[in-house]
Amino acid sequence: MTSSYRAEPIALYGPGFADNPHAVYARLRQYGPVAPVEIAPGVAAWLVTDYHVALELLRDTVTWSKDPRAWQQTVPPDSPVLPMLQYRPNVLFNDDELHRRYRRVVSDSFSMIEPHLLRAEVARLADTLIQQFGRTGSVDLVTQYARPLPLMLFNTLFGMPDSYGPRLVAALAGMLEANGPEEATAAGAAFESYVTELIGMKAERRGADLTSWYLDHPENLSVEEVLHQVVLTLGAGNEPTTNLISNALSRMLCDERYYSSLSSGALTARDAIDEVLRTEPPMANYSAHYPRNDVTFHGAYIRAHQLVMVSYAAANTAPDGLGDGPRSDGGAHLAWAAGPHACPAKQPALLIATTAIERLTSYLGDLELAVPREQLPWRPGPFHRALHSLPARFTPLSPDPTGASPWSRSPSTTSTPSAPTSTARRRAFAR
Ligand code: HEM
After folding, report:
1. Alpha helix stretches (DSSP H) within 20-144
2. What total of structural domains would you count in the chain?
3. Does the Cβ of 246 fall within 6 Å of ligand 1?
4. Which residue's CA is minimally distant from atom 15 of ligand 1?
5. How does strand 34-40 pair with strand 43-48?
6. Which of 4, 124, 177, 271 would give a disulfide with 267, using CB separation of 3.0 to 4.6 Å?
7. CATH of the domain at 284
8. Per-residue pLDDT tens for 29-86?
């Protein structure tokens, strides 16, 4: 049966969706694999909820385009979804040869980052953050850890000194949590000035960093093109990595199978990350595509340039009758999307999230949630599965009395720390 574009769209915004997205996905599946939704008041879209149909769409570049320019003419200019969807001259919103050109620059540059150096850098920045709250015994793991950590890391990867990290963190926090348009404009201006300064510095003097590699790549991007790829890399990398870390931590800290692993080892940080990628992916619904011509797609009649998105969260969790337990496909999921626009930074992102979680839990062995998981506040919005906050508590750490370093020994780099109990670990810090 063919559905019409306006057939009772289901809202993907507001607290109703954020509180229980899987209930909404179950309703959407009743429409078939492609369902009508509203992603903001008055902004209609189609959402693909079936794994195989999603793969078909993501791989078919003849039928589908990533260019939103015709669609965005139909959307109110102040719509809250435009920042995630409107055209920019970067890898995400272009097709064919231009996409391949930008993509080569981003992928080649990320492949030049040595994994062991990346791990060491994440650990160093994680320690800096843990030192800031380690003595207090309580922490909001979103605002004090999972959010600033990827930003501080990108600041380094793009080749800026640590002193610029707080500027980037403050600008992005301001853009996310602005109270009113004035604060939002000020935060946007702070972000712009950070990026302009970054490009200016690197255009003058190269280093062993992503910005310099983007500038020097044989694809010969202009300085303006580099600027757009830098902004996209920050935008695409930061928020989902924050959500991957915090969503995984929220599971680990309330589930005995993980909790016990902090001291005696059952399931690891990587297990929590894999569970999140399948059941609660950091990008829940995205992969915006637009048919180049009118098309009938698995029962939905879709006009040229209408917005179609993929629900990775729904596609990953569709009931398949296989039940729990080991499966021959290893629990395949679409958290990184698929096809030509699939995430090019999957390996570094996994390394960052795993290291961040292992570093934290190896220092704070008795970390626990300060509120039940059911009461955690989720941010409304159609795209991300994101916690507002993740309040936790732990036995405060004692600083190193010699003052040489707040940490008198390195923590374990695995999620199964060597110290048998958290008390023993705490003593080690005071030694
Ligand atoms: C180091 C951190 C990360 C960086 C630098 C990064 C970078 C990027 C870039 C540049 C793209 C656009 C690729 C293209 O259009 O060809 C992309 C796409 C994507 N990334 Fe990542 N990413 C990071 C982490 C993550 C994480 C943690 C997730 C979630 C698990 C994720 C999920 C995705 C998805 C679903 C897409 C496809 C988006 C779409 O087509 O609309 N990424 N990423």
Report:
1. 21-29, 51-59, 69-72, 82-85, 96-111, 115-133
2. 1
3. no
4. 92
5. antiparallel
6. 271
7. 1.10.630.10
8. 999 999 999 999 999 999 999 999 999 999 999 999 999 999 999 999 989 899 999 9
